[in-house]
Amino acid sequence: MKVIAADSSAAILDQKFEPQSIVAAAAVLVNSPYREFSACLAEPIFADATKGYEVIVHEAELCRQLLGKVKADVVHLDMSLGARPLEQLSPIQFSNIRVSSKGRRHLLKILPRLRKIAGEVRQRYGVEVLAIGKESVPVRIAELTAGAHAILYTCDKALKENQTVLLGLPLKCQPRPAEKRIYLHSLIAAEHDIRGYAEDKKEILKKVNITEMLNPVARGFRALKITPRSRN
Predict the structure, then answer these.
(1) Scanning 112, 143, 154, 218, which has the fewest C-beta atoms within 10 Å of its C-beta?
(2) What's the pLDDT at 87?
(3) Cα separation, 30 vs 203, whole angstroms
(4) Backbone angles phi, psi at 68, to 5 degrees
């Protein structure tokens, strides 16, 4: 089964390690054995962290774009709604789904746009869009892939602004630089061979110093302190 999935991840943090903006979104095509992507679309978004629900619509749009380039059997979105087909979701069904009242309001706000995209995907490509969330391994790969790209985007931001930037990484993962790539490996025990990566075509990693640390206010999360080498 070929799966396209999308997620957004990594956040610019303030001095108190509070998230300010979500940095990157990525859609990925994942094939068996489901350890890393075989095709990818990633973008910097720097979206307001307080409106994270809005990025789900952008994630769905990225999946639609990727479907225009590669074939897949199903689409997974980072919405934990019982793996229901998105096109079939209705406001009435939300009453049977375990979600906070705030989360329900946010879902109702974006549902019409999501259903429209899901309908277009089904009609054009014959593929269903499922609200499966974190149960999906491809969604996790998309999260790690977005995080890897976020590292490069944040390095670029630090260089352009000539200042140190603090980046919060996704849950339980660790960056590992390689030849013109940055990998983000899962640290979850059952996911030791799952990873995402980004191509460092501009060799931007050579222009910054990166200090890895634990996030002191969010257990299980790590952060990167990114400083332009010109400031040292």
Answers:
(1) 112
(2) 87
(3) 26
(4) -75, -10
Q: Which amino acid is at 94?
A: F
133 touches 80 (CB < 8 A) = yes
- What is the per-residue pLDDT across 191-216, written as a single tens digit (0 to 9) for each? 999 999 999 999 999 999 999 999 99
| CA nearest to 50, candidates 20, 77, 23, 25 | 20
Instruction: Mark out the alpha helices in 88-170 (DSSP H runs).
Output: 101-125, 137-161
Mean pLDDT of 93-119: 81
Structure tokens at 194: 């799952």
Same fold, 2-131 and 138-228: yes
DSSP 5-56: EEEEEEEEE-TT--EEEEEEEEEEEE-TT-SS-SEEEEEEEEEEGGGGGGHH
The fold of the 138-228 domain, in CATH, is Nucleotidyltransferase; domain 5 (3.30.420)
In the chain, count H helices and then E strands.
Answer: 3, 12
Tokens of 144: 């790690």
